[in-house]
Amino acid sequence: MFNKGKELLKLCKEQNKKISEIVIEKEINDNKISYDELMENMKFVLDTMINSANSALDKEITSVSNLTGGDAKKLEDYKNEGNTICGNLINSAMAKALSTSEVNASMGRIVAAPTAGASGILPSAIITVKDKFNLSEEDMICGLFTAGGIGEIIAKNATISGAEGGCQAECGVASAMAAAAIVEMVGGDVDTALNAASFALINVMGLVCDPVAGLVEFPCALRNASGVINALVSSDLAMAGVKSLVPFDEVVDAMYRVGKAMPESLRETALGGIAATPTGEELKRRLL
Ligand code: SF4
User: Fold this and answer.
1) What value, to the nearest 5°, has the Cα angle with vertex 197 and ends 192 and 203?
2) Does the C-beta of 171 come closer than 6 Å to ligand 1?
């Protein structure tokens, strides 16, 4: 039905539909399920996301390796003290993203969106926007379908794997999915959603994958915190009318080429970047 951003755009314009509506129709056709079943499935996804985004805010959740944990609660407590630099919305969004990352590192249940490593970004983004604009559960579910449509296009034309394309392909893609979802949730049109997704990818193009000791913990959780802010900033840029000079599909192609050009040491091998620092190496020795 659509493989590229421009095809999705055309469908939306021809049929005067939102991205989520086109994606919902596609899912029903592809999976041969009813509208009600599809909604029920996505409601389960949403509930899982909400749970993971909140679980580590009021109690410390530590990773299986004991390397990381407790940072979501630290940030939530810091926000509640009311003296933050960036304000409540930004800090709350980062805390929720960290929460899901910590649940993931503790082997709890999360939704890979698009991967487990980047699973904190989309839940935090849709909860943050829902809370700010007092939106409905249905708006959040539609946002998830929009995000899914963007993720599918990127997966088909590039990659959503850190091992193949670096962290830009995980946290960058999650931010792009979230940015498009946010735009639709706040009433933006399809062009604006694709601009927001483009900005989110452009903002972190070249981001390497370098998990310490090969564990999806550090710097992964930090990149989920900054990833949700990337999504929020990108959607605001697009909603303000800023346009991407380069179309979404070309941005996706560029991201893929950049990923391919990355040395293997910067693609999830834990042989470069932060993983290869003296401290990173020492932590690896201690853990393994
Ligand atoms: S650094 Fe690598 S493992 Fe960690 S979230 Fe990014 S892509 Fe995934």
Assistant:
1) 120
2) yes
Cα(44)–Cα(216) distance, rounded to whole angstroms?
A: 24
Q: How far is the CA of 139 from the centre of ligand 1 (A)?
A: 29
- pLDDT per 10-residue tile (average), the chain, 288 residues: 96 98 98 97 98 98 96 98 98 98 98 98 98 98 98 98 98 99 98 98 98 98 98 98 98 98 97 98 94
Mutate which of 101, 207, 223 for ligand 1? The one with the most ligand atoms within 8 Å of its CB, which is: 223
Minimum CA distance residue for ligand 1 atom 4: 220
pLDDT of residue 136: 98
pLDDT at 288: 81
| Best CA proximity match to 96, nearest among 68, 125, 116, 118 | 125
Domain ranges of the chain: 5-287
Residue of 121, 205, 209 with the most ligand 1 atoms within 8 Å of its CB, for mutation: 209
Look up the pTM and report it: 0.98
Nearest atom within ligand 1 for CA of residue 268: 2
**Residue position matching structure tokens 């499935």:** 41
With both helix axes pointing from N to C terminus, report the angle between 137-157 and 5-15 in degrees, rounded to the nearest 10.
140
Residue 62, φ and ψ in degrees, nearest 5? -105, 145
**Distance linking the first and last C-alpha atoms of the chain:** 47
Does 167 sit in the ligand 1 pocket, CB within 6 Å? yes
User: How many angstroms does the Cα of residue 210 sit away from the middle of ligand 1?
Assistant: 7
CATH architecture of 5-287: Orthogonal Bundle (1.10)
Q: Cα separation of 64 and 90, whole Å?
A: 28
Give the position, in ligand 1's atom list, of the atom nearest the Cα of 169.
7
